[in-house]
Recover the amino acids of this structure.
């Protein structure tokens, strides 16, 4: 397997909290990162902010250039724009490892809840829309707050479930996860099992609100 630090990681949605938090940790670990956004100017500003925090090789670009220039692409965009974005980037993402970390959630007075997805999950929608890409699912349960706080949080102690049907791709994503101090990448099953992983984020949000924390997952016995 290619050394993960020799690959370029693009983050679509890199101006948002989760994408930006992961980019900070990867840049700090020596990974080349491209921050993607609909606005290249916004992406370049986010890349500058990340570099000030983490150092490393980080630049910004619009979504199409980010997808084209990266070996691995993290999808960290809001659910309501997920399908349209991936459809527009099908050619640029062909042959790439795509990591979908989108959680289709709704919110009401009772709190967060999982939304129904016709394809089964956001990751399965990605697989349908990107037939030439190597789609995986991961990083659904990581805390953006802890990731961004590089100065005070040296290790983020949690496991990252990685799902997919391509063994080499899931192994690569697990290796990428483990560049973040404290993270452990754990294979979580086939992509068809992504629904419950995405939906479980609603439970973690409820835990965080009740106990005023930033909860994550730990898998025992592995």
């Amino acid at each position: 397997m290619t050394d993960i630090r020799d690959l370029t990681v693009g983050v679509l949605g890199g101006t948002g909290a989760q994408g930006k938090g992961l980019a900070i940790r990867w840049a700090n670990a020596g990974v080349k990162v491209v921050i993607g956004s609909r606005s290249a100017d916004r992406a370049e500003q986010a890349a500058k902010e990340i570099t000030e925090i983490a150092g490393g090789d980080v630049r910004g670009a619009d979504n199409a250039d980010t997808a084209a220039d990266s070996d691995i692409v993290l999808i960290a965009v809001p659910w309501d724009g997920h399908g349209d974005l991936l459809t527009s980037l099908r050619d640029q993402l062909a042959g790439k490892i795509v990591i979908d970390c989108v959680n289709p959630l709704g919110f009401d007075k009772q709190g967060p809840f999982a939304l129904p997805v016709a394809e089964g999950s956001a990751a399965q929608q990605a697989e349908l829309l990107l037939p030439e890409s190597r789609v995986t699912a991961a990083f659904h349960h990581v805390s953006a707050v802890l990731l961004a706080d590089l100065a005070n949080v040296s290790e983020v102690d949690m496991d990252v479930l990685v799902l997919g049907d391509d063994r080499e791709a899931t192994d690569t994503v697990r290796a990428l996860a483990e560049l973040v101090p404290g993270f452990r990448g754990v294979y979580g099953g086939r992509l068809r099992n992504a629904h419950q992983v995405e939906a479980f984020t609603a439970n973690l949000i409820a835990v965080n609100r009740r106990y005023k924390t930033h909860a994550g997952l730990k898998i025992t016995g592995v």
Remarks:
- The chain has nine helices and ten strands.
- The longest helix spans residues 194-211.
- The chain has a mean pLDDT of 97.
